[in-house]
Predict the 3D structure of the following.
Amino acid sequence: MHLIIPKSYDPKLSVKETQQAIRYIRETFQTEFGKELNLSRLSAPMFVTKASGLNDNLNGVETPVSFTMKDLPDEQIEIVHSLAKWKRVALKRYGFDMHTGLYTNMNAIRKDEDLDNLHSAYVDQWDWEKVIAKDERTMDTLKATVKTIFKVIKHMEHEVWYKFPKAVHHLPDEIHFITTQELEDLYPDKTPKERENAITKKYGAVFLMQIGGELHSGKRHDGRAPDYDDWQLNGDILFWYEPLQLALEVSSMGIRVDADSLAKQLKLADAEDRLQYPYHQAILHDELPFTIGGGIGQSRLCMLLLGKAHVGEVQAALWPQAMIDKCEANGIHLL
């Protein structure tokens, strides 16, 4: 069990007040976010068939929760890890126009997570996806979208301060952009996580770009599935989080693979067997729109804006009893 206990922690809001703040943040943010990025709210599945190839494989080692259904006895059904692939198919299926897109509430179970202050087996995020033109698959498009998302998060800080002034956690005014290779060059003797902490503490908010491929050291900064993000055009939004003295990832996002980058990345990941799936074939034959998309953690955002010490303060999940007891003894009330 890895657990950080902040010194003299004060949750500021009662459990009931926290629940009111959670509702306010979630309802307000998704409305503003959808408006700024020209996204429509859509319903989404909690499970997909394994044969569709639509589930997110994450780092390739996590096992999805799976089951069978009475009326589909020959299908293996999987709880989604995320909707990274499903969204792109949905944009085509529902006929979304250029520069429009969707967002949805995504709920998942990641049973192989290592539980700590930030990680839960229950995942709740806004998954979003937007149609772009082929010539917009650029770093400029990626950075402009990140700046828009950052602007909405900053606006939410002011909204939360107005409603819950004693609880709001203040955020930096700007976001800094850096690639994983630039970060390795800057801190060659640090681990990837130590690098993230160092750069995010320095700037307050960072968009760390180009995650998934090998660096000059021959190592990867972090794992990333090879079949949705283009590893040259993706990244994570990180905030320096003073209560826990670490970088808090709020969003993972990127411009999605085209036929060339999909084939290249599947080969690098030794995952070319995935080319058998309908989703991958559709990309290879240019049957899906070019898109940009990602996920924004709902509980992570609530945690960030309210200065909470544990994600379990803003979502109801399961935790080891030893963690529950230690948190309660230090004023951290898990839902």
The longest strand covers residues 229-241. The domain at 15-329 is CATH 3.30.930.10 (BirA Bifunctional Protein; domain 2).
